Amino acid sequence: MRLALFDLDDTLLDGDCSDRWNLWMIEQGWISDAEAFMARAEKMHQAYHAGKLKLEEYLAMTLAPLRGRRVRDVQKEVERFVATHLQPRIFEQAWACLEAHRQAGDTLVLISASSRHLVEPIATTLGIEHVLAVELSVEHGVNEDARYTGGSEGIFSYRGGKVLRLKQWLAEQQFTPSHTTFYSDSRNDLPLLQYVDCPVAVNPDPVLAEVASVEGWRRLDWRTPSSASSPNALPGKSAHV
């Protein structure tokens, strides 16, 4: 079994789904002090790109507006959000790359440091069956009235946690991949990029671009129209250079 792993934000998607969801929550009136919220979010965004974000702090802030909300109600909002704000931002080359891996018979996995309530519907849109993302804690009431607590649980799929989550998932699935490829844009994903057989830097940030250059990793710039993937150009294939 060959495994093709994909980061989401700024890799398959032009932008960050969590950042855009924050704006959506403000538009829906779910956040009372929007100015203070966005100021904190911007500082954390800068920390992420500097490789210094404490994900637990970001989650505490951005999941708080979900506290007490019915899971089914949030899901309806997320479906609208994904269809109108995210699906149009999926890179054209990403669709081609995913299809090439399908045609090659690879198993596709979306692995993201964003929360599952956002990542899973995007994966469905992309036709990716397997999802590893930040898990949200839920309280189950009567008549299946599940509500979000505003918290998270389990190992974060962030930095080295992505490697741990992947190992955990492979053990649960009883999969032993013969080859692993991972596509990512971020320095924060270096642990998983260094773990897989074939790392691919997509729209890389400056740190990842430097590492990819030194290590000789493949680089794709999906913000330009000339870097679409084809079945004969998949990482790990004989045509790959």
UniProtKB/TrEMBL annotation:
Organism domain of life: Bacteria
Keyword annotations: Hydrolase, Magnesium, Metal-binding
Protein name stated in the entry: HAD-superfamily hydrolase, subfamily IB, PSPase-like, bacter
Keyword Metal-binding: yes
GO molecular function, one term: hydrolase activity
One Pfam family, short name: HAD
Transmembrane segments: none
InterPro entries to which the protein is assigned, alphabetical: HAD-like_SerB (IPR050582), HAD-like_sf (IPR036412), HAD_hydro_SerB1 (IPR006385), HAD_sf (IPR023214)
Matches recorded under CDD domains: HAD_PGPPase
